[in-house]
Design goal:
The structure holds two protein chains of two kinds.
Chain A lengths: L3 E4 L2 E5 L5 E6 L7 E6 L6 E6 L5 E4 L2 E6 L4 E6 L8 E7 L8 E2 L3 E6 L1
Parallel strand pairs in A: 2-11
Antiparallel strand pairs in A: 1-3, 3-8, 4-5, 4-9, 6-7, 7-8, 9-10, 9-11
Chain B lengths: L3 E4 L2 E4 L5 E7 L5 E8 L3 E8 L6 E2 L6 E3 L9 E3 L8 E8 L8 E2 L3 E5 L1
Parallel strand pairs in B: 2-11
Antiparallel strand pairs in B: 1-3, 3-8, 4-5, 4-9, 5-6, 7-8, 9-10, 9-11
Chain lengths: 112, 113
């Protein structure tokens, strides 16, 4: 049973569009929510992470929105580029990497 | 700086055989992890080690064992491989176990026939 549910499975947008990837969790003890980006044939790499004491965090073109009451968080990519084409994973933990739970992943394609 | 290296890159293994996946990091990170990645399931933690000399079980530890004799190396052993262990295996490390970025290796693609 997946503790972090991620949607959609795949997403295609045009260059400049704003893809949005959503995640939902059940365990209210989770207090660390990272997003990882993975290119084909590579390991995942941390993109951005948020703690539940803020509702939004922005780093460059990437923004996490966090809704604690709904137990949901999402990743927005502003002005998406073909180089953003990758698989994105949300994750959640109780502040300890030893119990990190990942979503199933979203394969994003940004068309030129 | 290599970061994390994993070996082999890929392997085809007969069911019932023993296999050790190797992982080495040169960042002097205290914590290390083994994940498996399966389509539709994301990454699932197999085993972890918070510091040299200690190990713990993750979400899916059955059929796997690990050791952490020193800071740099964290091998994962499949004592008797089964087809359901066909997966891509990623080793990762972080400075410490809590609220810390995990750095992932390039992965090992394992096929058990």
């Amino acid at each position: 049973q997946q503790q972090v549910k991620q949607s959609p499975q795949s997403l295609i947008v045009q260059k400049g569009g704003i893809p949005i990837i959503n995640c939902a969790y059940e365990n209210t003890a989770f207090d660390y929510f990272p997003w990882y980006q993975q290119f084909p044939g590579k390991g995942p790499a941390l993109l951005i992470a948020i703690r539940p004491d803020v509702s939004e965090k922005k780093e460059g073109r990437f923004t996490i929105s966090f809704n604690k009451s709904a137990k949901q968080f999402s990743l927005h990519i502003m002005d998406s580029q073909p180089g953003d084409s990758a698989t994105y994973f949300c994750a959640a933990s109780r502040g300890n990497n030893n119990d990190m739970r990942f979503g199933a992943g979203t394969r994003l394609t940004v068309k030129p | 700086i290599a970061g994390i290296t994993q070996a082999p890159t890929s392997q085809i293994l007969a069911a019932g055989r023993r296999m050790t996946l190797r992982c080495t990091q040169d960042m002097r990170h205290n914590a290390m992890y083994w994940y498996r990645q399966d389509l539709g399931l994301g990454l699932r933690l197999i085993h972890y080690s918070n510091t040299a000399g200690t190990t713990g079980k993750g979400e899916v530890p059955d059929g796997y064992s690990v050791s952490r004799a020193n800071t740099d190396d964290f091998p994962l052993t499949l004592a008797s491989a089964v087809p359901s262990q066909t997966s891509v295996y990623f080793c990762a490390s972080s400075v410490l176990a809590g609220y810390n970025e995990q750095f992932f290796g390039p992965g090992t693609r394992l096929t058990v026939l």
